[in-house]
Structures are given as C-alpha cells and as structure tokens.
C-alpha cells in the first residue's frame, strides 16, 4: 500500500506551497467521520472549514448529484438551466431576499457584492470615488478585492496596492464605524459572526446601530454569511437572529455542502439599481451541477429539520465546552453561536492542540492567533459531542 508520506511528497513536488498542510491524506468520508489512506478514522469537527453541514454522504445528496451528472453538468450563462432557477428560488425564500447571483466560491461572492455596492452608488450620483467600510480582524477572501476588505494587515502587506476606498473600523464598536463614515461611503461590510478572526459574534446593539446608520444615509449593509450562514448559528442565516436584514448577503461553503458554489444575494432596492447585463459574469456561476447540489441542500434542510437539530444539540455542545473551560486554566473562555464555537487558549500554542488532536483522531482547527475553532457538521449527535470531548480531553491533559 502506498504510504501517506509518498502521497504527500508527490503532491509537494507539483502543488504550489501556499499551505502548511497537516501530514494526513484523506481518502473518504462517512457521516461525521473521515478516513485517511491508511484506514485510520477521524471524528470531524471542522467539516472542511464549515462546508460539510450535512456530513459525508447524507441520504439523498449523492443521488441528486449523480442524477444531475446523468442529465447535464454545464451549459453556460448564455442559456437558462433548470437547477439554477430552483436553487435561486429556495435561497431567496430562505433569506427573504430577492435576487441571486451564483458564484464559484465565497471570495467571488464578495467580489460581486463589492461591485454591486459600487454600482448602486454610481447609479445614484455618477461618482467613481465611493468608499467601503470594513472591519478589523475580518476575513472575506484572498483575491485583490476581497483582500482589500479583509482587516488583516499581515495578509495584505505584500500585495499592495490593493483596491482603494476602503476604511477599517472596529467590529462591535459603533463609534468607530461612525468615525469612518463620509459622504462617499457606499457600503459597510462585515461577517455577522467573525470566523477566521477568532469567532466573534456581532453584538445586537452594534448590528442594529450599523443598520440604522445605513438606512439613514442610504449606505448598503453587506453581511458576509459565508462561514456563519446555512444554519450554523441556529438560524438559516445568522442575521435572522438579530432582526437586521442586509441589503446584500454573501453565502458559500455549506451552500453546496461540498460542491464549490457561492452566491451574493441582493434585496430589491439594490438589485433594481445596480448590476445590469454586461456588468458582471462568470462562466461557471449557476452551473446546473452546483445548483443541483444547492437545491438538494435546501430540500434536506427543510425536510429533515436540520436547523431544529442544531438548536437541539448546540446547547449540549456549549455546556460540554463550558465544562472544559472551567476545568482547564489555559482555556480562557468559550465564544460562539450554535455550531460555530471557539475556545480561547492562553499560554499554549493552539496549533499544538490542533496537531495533537489530529494524531488522536479528532479534527479541529484554529481561528485567529489563540482560538480553537469547532465548526462540526450540523448533523452531529450528543454521542459525537461526547466523543469529541473525550478525545480533546486526552490532548488537553497532555498539554
Ligand atoms: C467569512 C468568510 N468570507 C469569505 C471567505 C472566502 O471564501 P472562499 O474560501 O470560498 O473563497 C471565507 C473563507 O474562509 C470566510 O470564512
């Protein structure tokens, strides 16, 4: 049998080294478990970074994809296809928003959101010097546009000059947002729950305050739900728990539950006054194969009450994590919502805990500099929470 090392060495010869990957080669998944090429099983509490909301091979999901493969997997945006319309209808219904543009990734959804916001402002006043306010410690992607609104100087530095007209404010600090507003501000962009930055949910007052400013000044509110959306926080979209609706929402990751697809979704006001034919496009966006996945994901969410399940299991997950925080001095606090949880680790490198967990058959990831991030498949049961806690405790005892 070929060793994992030989797979890794062969990959390193030809794959551009932009990730310091963990030394494991995964070959298959089943439910909430992954298996490497040597047959070792891992309990997956990372879900491909909040992608596999339904775990691996959820009943009916594979069949829907296979069925679409047998029909057609691509046509192009020059024509209509059936799954595109169906998927968009379900996404619009779940979000209460109006018009969908499908993309291939979260980053590309952010690009589209930025363009829609700029075009909206341009349509109003014909000016080309509009500004966007983004948040410190945010993450929106690595393309030049998305990186420009990503509040992490370390990611940005080597790639300057970035897109102009971006100002940064502090998340959950309304005064700092107000201080950045000018007559040129066209949009405020933020994650409803900051993910990569360290699992920080927006405060209700903050989000309501930002929304009020946006309404008063006709500034567009862009909420990035790429990581926190699709049921993860106990609502289909995290903003639905705040009663604050965005003008533009971005979505990806669990939207296709493993098939690469994203979307930006506009309300009627924005859709009717921004992008028109010729303004934006993508070859694969709205691809029937990806949209068949999206459509099936929404059906499963509805028919199998996935969000009810999140709300049933998440309190148990929180309770168990809180017990760890009480027990171990170096676990400072727990933050998060639903099945998007972070444990703040003090005085010990979080990466070491991640590595040791992997060795112990548990997949967890980090966020920010000191947060252990848990974003499991939404279909985990109590027994999986217990198993995770058992495996993690073995590591924490060692630490
Ligand atoms: C909140 C948020 N926005 C945008 C992105 C970028 O999405 P993608 O990696 O699909 O391009 C991510 C990815 O981690 C994310 O977490």
UniProtKB/TrEMBL annotation:
So what does this thing catalyse? N(2)-acetyl-L-ornithine + 2-oxoglutarate = N-acetyl-L-glutamate 5-semialdehyde + L-glutamate
What keywords is this UniProt entry annotated with? Amino-acid biosynthesis, Aminotransferase, Arginine biosynthesis, Cytoplasm, Pyridoxal phosphate, Transferase
Q: How is the cofactor bound?
A: Binds 1 pyridoxal phosphate per subunit.
- Assigned EC number: 2.6.1.11
Domain of life of the organism in this record?
A: Bacteria
Report the enzyme's class at the first EC level. Answer: transferase
InterPro entries assigned:
AcOrn/SuccOrn_fam (IPR004636), Aminotrans_3 (IPR005814), Aminotrans_3_PPA_site (IPR049704), Class-III_PLP-dep_AT (IPR050103), PyrdxlP-dep_Trfase (IPR015424), PyrdxlP-dep_Trfase_major (IPR015421), PyrdxlP-dep_Trfase_small (IPR015422)
Q: How does it assemble?
A: Homodimer.
The protein in question is named Acetylornithine aminotransferase
């Amino acid at each position: 049998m070929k060793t994992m090392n030989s797979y890794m060495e062969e990959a390193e010869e030809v794959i551009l080294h932009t990730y310091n990957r963990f030394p494991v080669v995964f070959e298959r998944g089943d439910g909430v478990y992954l298996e490497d090429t040597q047959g070792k099983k891992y309990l997956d509490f990372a879900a491909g970074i909040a992608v596999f909301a339904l775990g691996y091979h959820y009943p009916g999901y594979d069949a829907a994809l296979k069925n679409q493969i047998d029909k057609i997997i691509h046509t192009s945006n020059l024509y209509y296809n059936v799954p595109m319309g169906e998927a968009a209808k379900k996404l619009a219904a779940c979000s209460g928003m109006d018009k969908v543009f499908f993309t291939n990734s979260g980053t590309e959804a952010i690009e589209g959101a930025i363009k829609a916001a700029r075009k909206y402002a341009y349509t109003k006043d014909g000016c080309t010097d509009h500004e966007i306010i983004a948040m410190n410690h945010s993450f929106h992607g690595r393309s030049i546009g998305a990186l420009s609104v990503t509040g992490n100087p370390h990611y940005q530095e080597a790639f300057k000059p970035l897109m102009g007209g971006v100002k940064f404010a502090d998340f959950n600090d309304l005064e700092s947002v107000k201080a950045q507003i000018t007559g040129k501000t066209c949009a405020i962009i933020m994650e409803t729950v900051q993910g990569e930055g360290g699992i920080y949910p927006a405060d209700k007052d903050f989000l309501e305050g930002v929304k009020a400013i946006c309404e008063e000044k006709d500034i567009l509110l862009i909420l990035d739900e790429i990581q926190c959306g699709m049921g993860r926080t106990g609502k289909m979209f995290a903003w639905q728990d705040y009663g604050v609706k965005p003008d533009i929402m971005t979505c990806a990751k669990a939207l296709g539950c493993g098939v690469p697809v994203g979307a930006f979704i506009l309300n009627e006001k924005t859709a009717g006054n921004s992008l028109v034919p010729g303004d934006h496009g993508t070859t694969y966006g709205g691809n029937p194969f990806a949209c068949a996945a999206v459509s099936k994901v929404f059906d499963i969410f509805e028919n199998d009450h996935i969000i009810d399940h999140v709300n049933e299991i998440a309190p148990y997950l929180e309770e168990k994590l809180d017990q760890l925080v009480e027990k171990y001095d170096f676990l400072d606090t727990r933050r998060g919502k639903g099945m998007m949880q972070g444990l703040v680790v003090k005085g010990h490198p979080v990466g070491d805990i991640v590595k040791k967990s992997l060795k112990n058959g548990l997949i967890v990831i980090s966020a920010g500099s000191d947060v252990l991030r848990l974003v499991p498949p939404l279909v985990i049961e109590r027994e999986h929470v217990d198993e995770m806690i058992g495996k993690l405790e073995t590591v924490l005892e060692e630490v």
